Amino acid sequence: MERLMHVLLLGATGKVGAPIRDELRERGHEVTAVVRDGSRLPPADASLHHQIGDVFDGAFLDNAAQGTEVVLCSVALRDEAQRDRTPVTLIRRAAHAAGRAGARLIALGGAGSLRTASGVDVVDTPSFPEVAKRESLGFRAALHDLIDDAPEDLVWTMVSPPLAIEFDGPRTASYRTAYDDLIVDEAGASRISAADLAVAVVDEVEKSQYPRRRFTVGY
């Protein structure tokens, strides 16, 4: 049995964050959920604590991370209202909080920085949707920022999902991993269910198989 841990989860009510929250609790881990609106969370209990605040507030995050072993960031920044809030700043704040707490950092990034079969990053392909480009370029920059500038004693991991996340898809607990190359299935589709993405993320919480690097998942 894997050791049970206390995880600070940023973005715990999002389409990706909520399945991760539920997977963590199902496996017996303790979750402190950081959200802007606590009404969307299940009731607090011994395994779920609420922290209402702004993930861009460095002092708040530093305090919230104390006593945790993993800071897990699953925050989307595609909303135009968050245009001034960049992935680089988000991940730096989360990394600082993790470092202060002596915790690991696991951050969800985008698929845009993954390499296609032609050798071009997904975000640089002609078919990449314009509406997602700003966020995707931001998470690519955040990945390179971690690679180049993360403190040497910070154990960080970035998880890049495939192109399509199937939010109503089943939990099969079956997936493949790669480092920097986009994973596609036999039909040429790059996809995974949100439930199986959560399985992969929590597997990394428990096993720390990809320290100080990025990996991706897919079917």
UniProtKB/TrEMBL annotation:
The UniProt entry, under PANTHER family, shows: FLAVIN REDUCTASE (NADPH)
Give start and end of each NAD(P)-binding domain.
Answer: 11-204
Its organism's taxonomic lineage begins at: Bacteria, Bacillati, Actinomycetota, Actinomycetes, Mycobacteriales
Which Gene3D superfamilies does this chain map to?
Answer: NAD(P)-binding Rossmann-like Domain
Q: What is this protein called?
A: Putative NADH-flavin reductase
Its domain of life? Bacteria
Cross-referenced InterPro entries: NAD(P)-bd_dom (IPR016040), NAD(P)-bd_dom_sf (IPR036291), Polyketide_Oxido-like (IPR051606)
A single GO molecular function term of this UniProt record? oxidoreductase activity, acting on the CH-NH group of donors, NAD or NADP as acceptor
Q: What is the native source organism of this protein?
A: Mycobacterium indicus pranii (strain DSM 45239 / MTCC 9506)
